[in-house]
Amino acid sequence: MNKKAWLLFFVLLLTVSTALFGCSSDDGSSEDGGSGNDGGDAAEESGGETQDTLVFGRGGDSVALDPITVTDGESFKVTKNIFEQLVEFGEQDTEINPGLAEEWDVSEDGLTYTFMLRDGVTFHDGEAFNADAVVANFDRWANGTEDKFYYYKSMFGGFGDEEGHVIESVKAVDESTVEIKLKRPQAPFLKNLAMSPFGLVSPKAISDMSEEELAENPVGTGPFKFVEWRRNERIVLEKNEEYWNSEYPKVNQVIFRSIPENSARLNALMSGEIDLADGINPSDAAQIEGDENLQLFERPSMNVGYLGLTSTREPFDDPKVRQAMNHAIDRQAIVDAFFEGRAEVAKNPMPPVIAGYNDEIEGYEYDPEKAKALLEEAGLGDGFDMELWAMPVPRPYMPDGQKVAEAIQSNLAEVGINAEIVTYEWATYLEKARMGEADAFLLGWTGDNGDADNFLYVLLDQDNIGSNNYTYYENQEVHDLLIEAQSEVDEEKRNQLYMEAQELIHQDAPWVPLAHSTPLLAGSANLQGFMAHPTGSDWLHTVSFE
Question: What segment(s) does the record annotate as region Disordered (predicted)?
Fold first, then answer.
């Protein structure tokens, strides 16, 4: 081979080698931008850098990313890391801590709250966070409607000049001070403000975007910024380099992946495709605990899973039929079969960890004969046909809604009730149930703030029909007790009022309470700094990898 040919050969060889090296580098990171064991190993080999992307596998997609417009936990999982509130909960409890407000004062009569805001905070679009920004958010919320801002109605009693609206005014005293006046004392007011729906949005985004655009382009002050959303696939967040707390976040990127099947999600964790997974089946806990490459997390229990009975639809407008449903369903068997000892049978609409829980109430015992007798009294001795709605996604309070529905279906058949199981895509399921279209529906609630008001008033008061009261249950005596409890600042008196309300709700039986679970998550062994929050909305800015 002559000299010119050798030179040409050498150039071709160099070109091929470079191309092969490039392909090898591309294969070293996952489709999601680098996660799991591959990303960490590749980083260590290339210079000792640690993994900088957290991939969180979850059972369903978010409904929207504008926190005030949603009620579902899958949305709040994401928005919790984009937005911040005036006050925040503790790392693993619902005690009130500083947030975007560093300090606050409350007047002696409980009607005026003055918040001193944190300096040096900016929204992700560069807009300054100040008192005017706070006022802009409250103005937006207060001028909404219950079919748009469900939580605002539920937590603050109404909108604008409506009689039940507890907030009288919100004004900027100066650039860093906000004053909120109430029409009446509201004992859980600070806890309500700390809830995820009340994350503060950039005023520029509010003025420049439509409601539809805000739902898909979130702009907050939190540790992570929104990058992209591929529906039913993934949501990508990136580190907010201008975050006011320079210690956080620890990782550069968070990817939320939607993996509906529990087994597929666990397999993805075991193979290193994801780093953290929720909705772990209790039956898989032992396998995870026995795997040195994994670790198991228990979320502090503050939830209830239930079967809702829409009280405006026949035959569930009859309390005797609703009581019969309660006697017909074997709650203990459901807990034993699907929760593997990581739940307790529910008898009230709120969990025992919440102050004001009435433990004196005797739950409806599993008694098919009693159920048949009640149906006979209601003129339905031959039974009836109904639809039983099953959730399409695993939830913290119910790992497998379809299987629970099948167990309930079998129980109901024993007393002559023919239940047809139906389901819908998650966002559609929630919307149709909210509109009162279901006969009976499986659902649940993870407490937002650790207060009884957040369960009883939000879920079962007549004020919240069409928002979070999906059963359309109403009882004036219950309503009066719950409003009185809201306004009562004496904790002992508040608890007594809630216990009385639970007695009335128990008799009316708008729900079949099923279980209070201890939700499980699992992560890779090198994951550190993750703290599962009882509200189900987890901060991820503290997470890093060894």
Answer: 26-53
- With contact defined as beta carbons under 8 Å apart, do 515 and 395 qualify? no
Tokens for 136, please give them: 């802009």
Looking at the DSSP bridge assignments, the partners of residue 236 are 228, 255
Residue ranges of the alpha helices (H) in 222-339? 262-270, 285-289, 319-328, 331-338
- CB half-sphere exposure, 284, CA atoms < 13 A: 23
Report how far apart, in Å, the C-alpha atoms of 186 and of each of 131, 150, 358, 490 are.
22, 18, 22, 11
Helix (H) or strand (E) holding 517: strand 511-517
* Alpha carbons 506 and 362: distance in angstroms, whole number: 9
Helix (H, G, I), strand (E, B) or coil at 87: strand
CB atoms within 10 A of CB 410: 13
Type of residue found at 149: F
Both tokens of 272, joined, read: 């290193």
User: Does residue 249 have a cis bond before it (omega within 30 degrees)?
Assistant: yes
Edge to edge, the sheet with strand 511-517 lists 343-345, 511-517, 303-309, 440-446, 384-389, 417-422
Q: In angstroms, what CA-CA distances link 478 with 152, 183, 356, 364, 461? A: 21, 21, 15, 20, 7
Single out the residue of 290, 216, 266, 222 nearest to residue 61, CA to CA.
216
In tens, the pLDDT along 488-543 reads 989 999 999 999 999 999 999 999 999 999 999 999 999 999 999 999 999 999 99
Q: What is the pLDDT of residues 370-400, one digit of tens each?
A: 999 999 999 999 999 999 999 998 888 998 8
Task: Report whether 56 contacts 275 (CB < 8 A).
Answer: yes
Within 10 Å of residue 121's Cβ, how many Cβ atoms? 18
Question: Is 145:159 a contact under the CB 8 Å cutoff?
Answer: yes
Residue 249 CA to residue 81 CA, distance in Å, equals: 10
Q: Are 325 and 375 in contact (CB under 8 A)?
A: no
| Consecutive H or E run containing 297 | strand 294-298
Residue type at position 338: F
